[in-house]
Structure to design on (828 residues):
């Protein structure tokens, strides 16, 4: 489906800051999260995980564990069917190793027992015969010829010959002649950057309760961003038809992209099928860190040329991303996003995806973009410093705009980057004085945004209230936003609408809650479903009045005659029409199903002030302001929340968070004590400025907001630190030890 | 005829060209004919691609109409978090 034209209108509900319907349950602990699910006769499942980063599994002896009283089922990779499809096989093999353990924490066997203590004891009785293999956990080592090969035969046809077998795919984007462009520059800076893998750090660990009955039907309750995709993956792994598996999404305690796939769900299902009883698995935090989706870790080379007046003449990026032990495509998006904020005649990006003995990467807000844009924005900032130019002026001078041929190919339609930069330039934060030793950094950010498959059912209840059924777990307040859009279109109060998230048997397929898609795509489907219900209600009013349906309009939540020739009838409200619906033809509903495109790209600009303590290397964030184009902010508080959350996660990513691997290939910090996410005392209030430049692809002008906010912070912090400390680090995180080392090296 | 811009690493799979022309009225025809004319592109098309039409990115949408003068860019399949 193509664009749904935006039409300017005055909103009554959309744009207000109503209370979210799931709020009370969540703050009182009444909400049902993944680990809250129970079933009669439930067993507890636990997973045995490899202590080695790379090892051949020569044999697994489960006999002693099977003999333990209370053990009801044991599972290994051999119990799961061989898969033809590469994607499904990778998902399955990541859940349960088959021939090799590919990273520290890779599941190798699972147990279902009557209680947790028995399951834990059983794991200790399982004997795995490992042949330890050489490992590689660093992307720069993995690309070298002769590096240990993580998986053989996974290199795609697009990888040039002669590279390490760990390089699985290659991409290239851009236009013009970079060499000629660099020749025109007054200064060319080329730098090497590295970023650590980071974890999404959601509060709620993965949890699943599976129940497979003897007739082959199955139920699964789990914590996920997409119950329909879970069904697709699990049904394929279990060899079931999708209709035989019903998946219900629990409330979710954070996802950020990390709950867009499965880790324990197929294991719980397979154990349940074997045991003939429900099986529940809840990951420990150690398991979450060792065996679920961190980001890629990266190694990047950036080269940019600029004239002394601030014009960028050429730009080039070489990106090496590793998403762990399975092929991924994240570098493609990093390479496309790298220079998206700039109008460039000569630009080229090259990307390589690389295998390492680390857990399989999962998406994390704008996957691939924060890393490449960190590197690019750092070099742009260094060029500004070199020429003594204002960094916002330089970005305005080179900003992509309508008609710009983007660095990734398409010509931009209307975009909001210039307006966002101008808003940042005019904001008091940008002109506020800094004290000695403090530094201010800025950065642009970009994300594509997506739409996707969405189904919505909207039912008009006989009491005049509305039930909206949608299929996307609510992560950022989407139930409130969907209710607002339904209320707006119907012309009734927000409190008259209740939106629920359906299980997979109750609604057609819905894509995962990702890609900043839900408010845009599900919102569009909701508006269309409401319009369908309005059409039905206009018809009912027409019948009651004895006039043609075309002679009835819908205004302020009521049917009204369309002009004086239609007849003189008082408005008939939605509640009045609903009350007699049984007598006028039956229940009233509206449905809409769509695979929608036209989400519209999004830009953000972040300003941050910091102070680096040169004795400890600690960076204090003093002030932070986020500027972002939301299209239309359906619920401004939740848009602000997305912008603030992205900034906070980016601050953690920039200053402290990292996966640290020892020489033994084992993760050294699988817990929140040693993997340090920002806490309230680390942060100032994150100020926000929402720009509303309508997206022409949505009836209300909505575009996605969830991902762009995490893209600029890495570079904004790096640029601020460089001005505060007088040194420029080229590796993230800028943790105190790393800052001290750089200060020491600089003398 | 529709002119299609290919991302750079597909050049080798399309006889060294970064822009190719195919007769197509919609995305499905475009992808089918690209794969038929340039078999080297077929593995990537099978794995999944996105298409940009006049600057708007589409991930599926076989039957989206393409005007002959439209700007069409073949892109990797896009995902989010």
């Amino acid at each position: 489906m193509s664009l749904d034209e935006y039409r300017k209108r005055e909103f009554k509900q959309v744009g207000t800051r109503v209370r979210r319907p799931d709020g009370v349950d969540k703050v009182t602990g009444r909400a049902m999260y993944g680990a809250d699910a129970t079933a009669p006769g439930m067993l507890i499942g636990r997973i045995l995980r490899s202590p080695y980063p790379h090892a051949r599994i020569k044999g697994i002896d489960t006999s002693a564990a099977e003999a333990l009283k209370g053990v009801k089922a044991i599972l290994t990779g051999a119990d799961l069917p061989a898969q033809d499809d590469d994607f499904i096989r990778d998902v399955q093999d990541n859940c349960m190793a088959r021939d090799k353990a590919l990273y520290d924490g890779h599941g190798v066997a699972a147990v279902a027992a009557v209680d947790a203590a028995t399951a834990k004891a059983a794991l200790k009785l399982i004997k795995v015969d490992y042949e330890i293999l050489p490992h590689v956990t660093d992307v720069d080592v993995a690309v070298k010829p002769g590096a240990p090969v993580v998986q053989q035969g996974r290199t795609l046809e697009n990888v040039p010959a002669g590279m390490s077998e760990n390089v699985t795919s290659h991409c290239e984007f851009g236009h013009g002649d970079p060499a000629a462009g660099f020749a025109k520059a007054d200064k060319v800076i080329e730098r090497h950057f590295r970023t650590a893998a980071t974890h999404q750090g959601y509060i709620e660990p993965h949890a699943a309760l599976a129940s497979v009955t003897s007739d082959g039907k199955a139920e699964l309750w789990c914590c996920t961003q997409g119950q329909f995709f879970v069904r697709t993956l699990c049904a394929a792994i279990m060899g079931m038809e999708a209709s035989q598996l019903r998946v219900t999404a629990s409330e979710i305690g954070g996802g950020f992209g990390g709950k867009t796939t499965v880790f324990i769900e197929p294991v719980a299902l397979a154990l349940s099928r074997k045991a003939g009883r429900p099986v529940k698995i809840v990951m420990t935090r150690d398991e979450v860190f060792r065996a679920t989706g961190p980001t890629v870790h990266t190694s990047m080379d950036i080269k940019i040329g600029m004239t002394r007046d601030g014009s960028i003449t050429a730009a080039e990026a070489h990106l090496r991303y590793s998403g762990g032990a399975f092929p991924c495509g994240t570098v493609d998006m990093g390479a496309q996003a790298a220079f998206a904020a700039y109008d460039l005649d000569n630009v080229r990006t090259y990307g390589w995806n690389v295998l390492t003995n680390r857990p399989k990467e999962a998406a994390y807000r704008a996957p691939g973009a924060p890393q490449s844009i960190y590197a690019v924005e750092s070099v742009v900032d260094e060029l500004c410093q070199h020429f003594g130019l204002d960094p916002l002026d330089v970005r305005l001078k080179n900003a992509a705009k309508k008609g710009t041929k983007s660095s990734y190919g398409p010509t931009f339609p209307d975009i909001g980057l210039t307006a966002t930069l101008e808003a940042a330039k005019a904001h008091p934060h940008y002109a506020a004085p800094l004290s000695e030793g403090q530094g201010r950094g800025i950065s642009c950010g970009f994300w594509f945004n997506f739409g996707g498959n969405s189904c919505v059912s909207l039912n008009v209840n006989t009491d005049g209230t509305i039930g909206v059924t949608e299929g996307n777990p609510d992560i950022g307040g989407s139930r409130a936003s969907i209710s607002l859009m339904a209320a707006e279109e119907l012309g009734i109060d927000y409190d008259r609408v209740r939106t629920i998230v359906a299980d997979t048997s109750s609604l057609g397929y819905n894509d995962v809650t990702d890609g900043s898609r839900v408010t845009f795509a599900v919102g569009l489907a909701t508006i269309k479903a409401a319009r369908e219900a309005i059409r039905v209600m206009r018809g009912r009013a027409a019948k009651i009045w004895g006039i043609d349906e075309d002679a009835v309009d819908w205004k302020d939540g009521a049917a009204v005659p369309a002009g004086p020739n239609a007849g003189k009838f008082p408005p008939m409200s939605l509640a009045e029409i609903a009350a007699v619906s049984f007598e006028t033809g039956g229940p009233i509903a509206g449905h809409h199903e769509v695979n929608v495109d036209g989400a519209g790209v999004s830009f953000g600009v972040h300003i941050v002030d910091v102070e680096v303590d040169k004795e400890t290397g600690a960076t204090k964030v003093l002030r932070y302001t986020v500027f972002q184009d939301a299209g239309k902010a359906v619920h401004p508080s939740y848009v602000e929340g997305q912008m603030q959350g992205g900034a906070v996660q980016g601050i953690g990513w920039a200053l402290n968070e990292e996966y640290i691997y020892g020489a033994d290939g084992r993760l050294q910090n699988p817990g929140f004590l040693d993997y340090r996410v920002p806490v309230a005392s680390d942060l100032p209030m994150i100020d926000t400025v929402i720009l509303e430049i309508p997206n022409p692809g949505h009836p209300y002008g909505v575009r996605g907001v969830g991902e762009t906010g995490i893209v600029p912070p890495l570079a904004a912090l790096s640029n601020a630190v460089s001005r505060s400390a007088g040194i420029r680090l080229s590796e993230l995180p800028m943790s105190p030890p790393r800052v001290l080392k750089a200060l020491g090296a600089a003398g | 005829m529709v002119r299609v811009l290919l991302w750079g690493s597909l050049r080798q799979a399309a006889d060294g060209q970064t822009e190719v022309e195919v007769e197509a009225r919609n995305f499905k025809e475009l992808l089918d004919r690209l794969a038929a004319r340039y078999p080297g592109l077929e593995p990537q098309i099978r794995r999944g691609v996105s298409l940009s039409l006049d600057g708007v990115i589409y991930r599926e949408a076989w039957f989206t109409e393409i005007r002959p003068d439209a700007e069409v860019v073949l892109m990797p399949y896009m995902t989010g978090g």
About this structure: Helices of chain B lie at 27-37, 42-47. Residues 27-37 of chain B form the longest helix (11 residues). Residues 25 and 64 of chain B are 8 Å apart (CA to CA).
